[in-house]
Amino acid sequence: MRCHPFKSGWKRSCWKCTVKRFAVTFILTWIGCYSYYLYYSHYVVKYDYAFVNMNIDAACVIPDLDPFDSSIKQYIYQPQPLQCSQKHEYTYIDNTGILKMNKTAAKSLSKCQYSIIRRAKDPRDSKIYYEDAVEFTDNVNVKSDFFKVTCKNAARQVAYTNIHCHIHNTLPTSQPHHFQDQRKPNVLIIGLDSMSRLNFIRRMPKTYRYLTKNLNSLIFKGFNSVGGYSSINIYPLLMGLPNWDHENKPTDWMPIIWKAFEKNGYVTLYSEDKPSYSTFQNFHQQPTTHFQRPFWLSFQENPIMDGIGLFVADRGISLGNSVLCEGRTPKHMLQINYFKEFVLKYKVPRFGFIWNNLLAHDWLNMVQVSDDDYYSLLQKLETSKQLDNTFLIFMSDHGNRFDWIRHTMHGRVEERMPFLAVKPPLWFKSKHPQAYARLEDNVQKLITPFDVHELLRDILNSNYTDRTPNSDKLPRGLSLFSTIPSSRTCKQAAISEHFCACYGIQEIDKNSDFVKRLANYVITEINRVLLRKESLCFQLKLKTVKTAYKTFSEYSSSGNSFIISIETSPGGAIFEATVKQIAEELHLGGDISRINKYGDQSKCITTPSRDLHKFCYCKNNIKTQ
Predict the structure, then answer these.
(1) What confidence score (pLDDT) does residue 411 get?
(2) Where are the beta strands (DSSP E) in 357-461?
(3) How many CB atoms lie within 10 A of CB 26?
(4) Which residues, in sequence order, are CB contacts of 608 under 8 Å at separation 6+?
């Protein structure tokens, strides 16, 4: 019986519902209190670990940290397996792309229809529409990647819905000549957001073992991010540019490298699993042969409930079906299956780029629920010979930025050093031994997403020569097929001082007048940005200095540099900044990092602006702490 709280007599008929409501209220209240406790017991932690690089005379010494260091053990734990729905799925797509019905399970259904999902004309590329429904009673070939099935029972009530996703081959039966060249190597990029190399070792052990032991992939220990969020690392990766200055231009204008591959005869795929987090948005035209965004838009995002669901899942608390599932299927598998079908279905050169944002963006440990699935993906691609002629790149953009580990110096280094693995085709080592030797040698060198972009350009142009110039002035990006000097510095690699992981540090008195001057300078710089939205955002005040360190790096020759972390009010934001002292003047050594979650504190900011979102505490929030 359903609850009708506004109808007379509901108390008599629905006393069980009242008990259920009370139980739900109690559980949500407990979660809120527990969240508050965890914030103060874990987020506001004492820094008790510092990575100190004693060899400060070298241009860059790659940090060599223990993935299971004692300073971070308290933040590492085993997540619970996902609990997805156990309800029957009455429709499915077979290996040939045909929509079929499980007629035995679907006996109670009387009428089924499918509606194709299309991108709507929308400046933000955030809307979809459904074509007119088509009734079906037997197997049908739906000529679209995405469609929704709705079935009704004998009472004409909707009894079943399912949103299907598959690869509908768009190539003509008689393929143009440039699609026939199967000798060109495939390029497949698999991305996990916010995944350091060390956390990949911890949380993806089966996938890591398969990459290294079975596929003989090269793991790049000196891979350093160039900034603290996704786009500032993915722009260099896919465009070779640090940013996109033409904000008034649609995303279609961006020189994304998949365009060059497509012109060179490749079919292409692009997928990010969380539309609101996607690096590339606002496309007017479909950017790649296969583009999964409309599929993800068909699921309504609920940031508050998703956040609660992810939090309780990360803590091993079960409240029923996980927000990481869609029906019976984990959401990451919807992306993996789409990608796998793309690779298996086509017999022409393929460029695929998938990026998972949902699993690891906020939480350190939850990504492990996908380890078996990425392992199985790699195993399938290898056993089906799809990797024989493929450059496989498995990577991330940066390490975790928000979970509790980030409040240790170990976590600070991890944030700057994401995971990167490269597996060349089987023929590459024997056909290009010198290029392979340079690629192998570069696993211990300082590299960035700019260098991976140059690698992609070389693959596109079949250029495996050494392109490093014989000069002290090096370009920003050096191909991984080229010689990367051991003497390369962060400055040469276009890494700001704040994000450089190569230097040593020494703790200084956080209560000194000088450190308070540094802290107030950072507050002034933050408030300078907030003046752009003075009517919406509070000006921040210094609450406390959390830590202070002096740094030693190639940047030190032009002045002293310091890393400080501060807590501000209102809002309890924790920021970290590198401040440089030249004579008596202070300067920022790069971006200011927000190292705790800010949820909807900046919900009054409706325009895209990373600085405002991480800095702003809206005036329409609670005004006193």
Answers:
(1) 85
(2) 390-395, 420-423
(3) 10
(4) none
